[in-house]
Amino acid sequence: MAVAYHEDYPAHYDEFINDFAEIITSKDEEAIKAVTQTLRSQRGIPIVVVTIGTIHDYTSGHNTIEGFATGLFNNWGIGSREKNMGILLLVAKEDRKLRIELGAGYGRRLDRECKAIVDKVIVPQFKKGDLSGGIVLGVKAIDQMLRGKPPVPLTQKQQITHFIIDVVLLITVISLV
Asked: For the chain (length 177 residues), average pLDDT per consecutive 10?
């Protein structure tokens, strides 16, 4: 699909995936839709994936991926106004930038997890040249994060730390009984 130039933002054509840069394979598109549709129906949380060539194709007035993502998120009205729990995964292929934009309803509590998803899940796939696969894994990791599961695999050190904390908590609870 060709991008119309000189618009503030692209006009969305799909509820879940808007692949203006044409980088998502049809197989990966099916996988993304399966995750996003399930999350939307079970939790009422929309994840919208958008790929563009460059943010400079649009006259939004934003020169950073962060500003563009926030503006696009608000322009499209991602998520409900009441809860503001929508999520945007934006990839600007030519700019070599990506952003996970969270609705204000999340506050800052998931920022660290989103950064980990970008750094440890999506970017490694992008570096291998697999943009489509990186987006799929990113969407799956976001889904895991929203379901309270670790979005990225824990290192052995982190697993040991979590185990020790669990044991200490268990001992504390037992001693209180």
From this structure: 62 94 97 96 94 92 92 90 88 97 90 93 96 97 89 61 70 75
List residues bridging with 102 in a β-sheet: 87
Residue keyed to tokens 């489509």: 132
- 100 phi-psi bin (left φ>0, alpha ψ -120 to 50, beta other): beta
Assigned token pair, 85: 């729990």
- Which two tokens mark 38? 């399930």
